[in-house]
TrEMBL record:
A Pfam family: Aminotran_4
Gene assigned in the entry: Bcat1
Assembly notes: Homodimer.
Reported function: Catalyzes the first reaction in the catabolism of the essential branched chain amino acids leucine, isoleucine, and valine.
Protein name: Branched-chain-amino-acid aminotransferase
Amino acid sequence: LQASDLIITPATTFKEKPDPTGLVFGTVFTDNMLTIEWSLASGWEKPCIRPLENLSIHPAASALHYAVELFEGMKAYRGVDGKIRLFRPALNMDRMARSALRTTLPTFDQKELLECIRKLVELEQEWVPYSTSASLYIRPTLIGTEPSLGVKKPTKALLYVILSPVGPYFPSGTFSPISLWADPKYVRAWKGGTGDCKVGGNYGSSIYAQQEALEFGCQQVLWLYGEDHQITEVGTMNLFLYWINENGENELATPPLDGIILPGVTRQSILDLARSWGEFKVSERYITMSDLTAALEKNRVKEMFGAGTACIVCPISKILYQGKHLDIPTMENGPEVTTRFLNKLTDIQ
């Protein structure tokens, strides 16, 4: 895979750019896309930037039958200086390569793919919103296109990248608190599975639980794991708890990367920022629902928030657990730390 081989045949008809204030997440796409085909026989073909169009794949393609696919999520931002920047894209390329290994899809040169993506964004630069509350979402995708039935390593694959200008991920807005539904009967991931990879199977199987959460009046699922109801992730986000821990210390805690947690880019960035501040303890540790409820009873919980590329940082105000509504005092506490992370990350981006 060589960026120097890139063939660019751009669109000649152009769609109207949307108003950045009215964007609904992931519904509008730019004029062009990047595609790179791979086969066991020939390796990677020359990368192409061409007009956005529907894919033509065999009906037996392994992505359709056996979920042999993966994706990434990253963003390009327009700074106040007018320059366009991608936020820590090397971390996305690294995670994408790990997901490819786990799903037996072809590996690729991360720097070369990133350069192809950069050229696509450069071509579509007018689609990067002139706004501080909107951005251009980048969705690299790798699918198995093996044209035969049978659960096996694919001999053909397609890597493509599409772009979508986006506003806030949640309809409630950029920084409105969300409520969570926590029920151990559904599990997002398990030890030895693919919870630490960004593969579609992790998301498709979560929709049923998400619908149930909505029926209970909650916006997202708080995923629990194990007999002790370990807190893992929030919907499609990593989770952070800012509290006074069992030893009386101010602590920012998030579940450890033990194979069931997605190693989020925003997650890593928040940990890096917090450790650089040196103002409170920063831990990657297990937190159970009994830990949380005990801390709430003793007023030791200060703030709780989700973090991810789509939403950046999202405060949490309520959790429905075992028939009880737990009030999380995130907004009552400012939310000082959550807002600070959001502002700092937004400034960097």
